[in-house]
């Protein structure tokens, strides 16, 4: 089968490799669509310790079930599905509570197992969920990440929010914030094209942090600070921006993974009783809910200027375009 293989920092090879088989309890999907995740960009650059080359990445995908492992019901065959890429022990306290993302033994399709940047991918049958649309089905995974982030800051009706970063996770977080009742949401990004896209996702105000009056604009809109903030970038600067912009007793969630070491004003956090959360991905419930959302048409429709579909063969160029900062689209989805 054809596959896009990451072989080292900034190196992708489109090559032929053996098609995976279906182990007991697993199925093989013929991949129909697979998104490029921001965490895979850091992997591509060699900055992600979880990913080791050579590796077929790809954990946001949809596909048709074409092969069944032993013990898997025949009803799966021929279904268009997406899959929760998390694989956990299933026996620990976290797994028993539906929080497999916290399992110490957790593994990921596209990290610890070959992913979906290929014609075929093998996944556990129990992780599969039927979807109604090839592309939207592949976007259930990033939506689940955004849903988890917004859940962690407990958005309520009438809340004010800020989302730092207008990549697909940030855009989806804006949509989730508004869905949960936020009356105003500021979108912040240094890329004007992406910032403009935020309007379609529910942003009520757009601010480029490079502008000299950016902080003043935030203070004018939210004099007491924002109720809840999502940092979907993950740099020292954006984490500090979030703390500076949140109200006393406000909530911040960090989902971006751009930088690791970060200096923050500890006394401000203590004195203002600011709540700061981290989120890696999603619970079982949140993934299932995200699938329901995409099947119900939750994602913006129309021309979808935020999305670009490309052949898998062009994946290497797509990765390079995104890490260089020249990408026009917040989301690129590849199709074998």
Detailed description of the structure:
With 336 residues, this protein is of the alpha/beta class. It has 2 domains: 2-139 and 299-335, Quinone Oxidoreductase, Chain A, domain 1 (Alpha-Beta Complex); 143-278, NAD(P)-binding Rossmann-like Domain (Rossmann fold, 3-Layer(aba) Sandwich), CATH 3.40.50. Helix content is 28%, strand content 27%. The chain is built from 11 helices and 17 strands. It has helices at 38-45, 93-96, 134-138, 140-152, 168-179, 192-197, 214-221, 236-245, 266-271, 284-295, 315-323; strands at residues 2-8, 11-16, 26-35, 60-68, 80-83, 86-87, 107-108, 120-124, 128-130, 160-164, 184-188, 205-207, 226-231, 246-254, 275-278, 307-311, 331-335. The strands form 4 sheets. Strands 3, 4, 5, 8, 9, 16 and 17 form a 7-stranded mixed sheet that branches. α4 (140-152) packs across α5 and α4 packs across α10 (284-295). The longest helix has 13 residues, at 140-152. The mean pLDDT is 95. Residues 169-294 form the Alcohol dehydrogenase-like C-terminal domain. Keywords: Metal-binding, Oxidoreductase, Zinc. It comes from Fodinisporobacter ferrooxydans.
């Amino acid at each position: 089968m054809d596959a896009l293989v990451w072989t080292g920092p900034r190196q992708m090879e489109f090559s032929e490799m053996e098609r995976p088989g279906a182990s007991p309890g697993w199925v093989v999907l013929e991949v129909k669509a697979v998104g490029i995740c921001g965490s895979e960009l850091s992997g591509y650059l060699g900055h992600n310790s979880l990913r080791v080359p050579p590796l077929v990445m790809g954990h946001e995908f949809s596909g048709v079930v074409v092969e069944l492992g032993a013990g898997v019901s025949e009803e799966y065959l021929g279904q268009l599905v997406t899959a929760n890429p998390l694989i956990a022990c299933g026996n620990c306290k976290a797994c028993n509570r539906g929080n497999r993302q916290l399992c110490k033994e957790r593994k990921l399709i596209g990290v610890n197992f070959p992913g979906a940047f290929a014609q075929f991918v093998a996944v556990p049958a129990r992780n599969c969920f039927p979807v109604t649309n090839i592309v939207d089905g592949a976007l259930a995974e990033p939506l689940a990440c955004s849903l988890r982030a917004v859940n962690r800051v407990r958005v309520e009706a009438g809340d004010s929010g800020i989302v730092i970063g207008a990549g697909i996770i940030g855009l989806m977080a804006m949509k989730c914030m508004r869905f949960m009742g936020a009356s105003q949401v500021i979108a912040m990004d240094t890329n004007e094209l992406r910032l403009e896209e935020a309007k379609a996702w529910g942003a009520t105000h757009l601010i480029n942090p490079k502008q000299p009056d950016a902080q003043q604009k935030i203070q004018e809109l939210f004099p007491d600070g924002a109720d809840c903030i999502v940092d979907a970038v993950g740099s020292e600067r954006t984490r500090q921006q979030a703390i500076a912009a949140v109200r006393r007793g406000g909530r911040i969630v960090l989902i971006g993974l751009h930088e690791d070491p970060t200096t923050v004003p500890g006394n401000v956090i203590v004195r203002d009783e600011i709540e700061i959360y981290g989120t890696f991905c999603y619970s079982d419930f949140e993934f299932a809910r995200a699938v329901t959302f995409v099947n119900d048409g939750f994602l913006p429709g129309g021309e979808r200027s935020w999305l670009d579909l490309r052949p898998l063969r062009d994946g290497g160029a797509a990765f390079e375009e995104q890490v260089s900062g020249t990408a026009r689209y917040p989301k690129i989805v590849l199709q074998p």
